[in-house]
């Protein structure tokens, strides 16, 4: 039986053998606890038929567990210094492909088409580099890739914002952007102690089930997201105030009052009280 990569001893051994130094700028916090990895995999609901796309395999801690429980793993890694390490640690597994590319630059759709069969269920599972969490997730969602879910370890505060409901402190334009495309839930909180080196923020596992059609019907997506952003520009201000500031060049106050009236939304409300459906109704009155 093989000793898992995700243990403090094995991780330290590998670090020493290759003289590897963590790059904070690449969000390199590696997992040293197999139970956390099993919890992530359970949340992702993968089986021996599932195709898995990972972002940032690091030393292969999660990659190894994914290889054991899925059909095939394709992992994007930006740091070429990890090449000899991954060649050694993942050597026992035949169902892993590592792509040494920045996932934000890669042709992800093409790589999915190359490595998985068209009928195969493909899921994203990763312990993301925290400095680029939002750009990575938004890109995966906006590119409308053929993936059914995304299960990622990210900074807890960001996970809470992505899954937040109206009338909570965490609810904002990020919640709406993510929930427009997915059903979002925070599956579990993870302590700092399972990482090496320990990050200075708390972590959580976020599960995003991708919707077959967006949550709400909007006539113009970019206008909808622009309106949402504007509505949260100053959280303490009313919707009326935020919108008249943002649209001062295009609409008079009276015109804006009229739009809100048409959408059945009281201008004295704050953005944080509007549901995603209400934002859609309001946006659709404009365009
Ligand atoms: N999966 C490993 C684990 O759980 O132990 C490592 C996770 S570590 C938080 C993030 C990994 O993402 C690092 O290996 C880092 O080099 C890699 N990374 C950072 N930015 C990346 C990018 N833009 N594209 C692909 N990989 C990236």
Automatic annotation (TrEMBL):
The catalytic activity of this protein is classed by the Enzyme Commission as 2.1.1.182
One Gene Ontology MF term: RNA binding
Keywords, ordered alphabetically: Cytoplasm, Methyltransferase, RNA-binding, rRNA processing, S-adenosyl-L-methionine, Transferase
Location(s) in or outside the cell: Cytoplasm
Pfam families, per database record: RrnaAD
Tagged with keyword rRNA processing: yes
Taxonomic superkingdom:
Bacteria
Q: Where does S-adenosyl-L-methionine bind?
A: 29, 31, 56, 77, 102, 127
UniProt name for this protein = Ribosomal RNA small subunit methyltransferase A
To which species is this protein native?
A: Paraliobacillus ryukyuensis
């Amino acid at each position: 039986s093989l000793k898992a990569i995700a243990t403090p001893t094995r991780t330290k051994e590998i670090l020493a053998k290759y003289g590897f130094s963590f790059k904070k700028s690449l969000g390199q916090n590696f997992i040293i606890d197999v139970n956390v990895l099993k919890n992530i995999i359970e949340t992702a609901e993968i089986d021996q038929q599932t195709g898995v796309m990972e972002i940032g395999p690091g030393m292969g801690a999660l990659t190894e567990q994914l290889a054991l429980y899925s059909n095939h793993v394709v992992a994007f890694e930006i740091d070429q210094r990890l090449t000899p390490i991954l060649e050694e640690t993942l050597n026992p597994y035949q169902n892993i492909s590592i792509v040494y590319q920045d996932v934000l630059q890669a042709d992800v759709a093409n790589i999915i088409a190359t490595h998985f069969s068209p009928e195969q269920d493909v899921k994203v599972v990763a312990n993301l580099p925290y400095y680029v969490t939002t750009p990575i997730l938004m890109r995966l969602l906006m590119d409308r890739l053929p993936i059914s879910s995304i299960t990622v370890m990210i900074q807890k505060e960001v996970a809470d914002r992505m899954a937040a409901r109206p009338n909570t402190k965490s609810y904002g334009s990020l919640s709406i952007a993510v929930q427009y495309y997915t059903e979002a839930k925070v599956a579990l909180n993870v302590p700092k102690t399972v990482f090496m080196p320990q990050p200075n923020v708390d972590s959580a596992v976020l599960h995003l089930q991708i919707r077959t059609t967006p949550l709400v019907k909007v006539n113009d997506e970019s206008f909808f997201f622009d309106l949402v952003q504007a509505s949260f520009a100053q959280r303490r201000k009313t919707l009326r105030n935020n919108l008249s500031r943002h649209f001062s060049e295009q609409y008079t106050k009276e015109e804006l009052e009229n739009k809100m009236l048409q959408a059945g939304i009281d201008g004295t409300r704050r953005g944080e009280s509007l549901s995603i459906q209400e934002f859609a109704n309001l946006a659709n009155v404009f365009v």
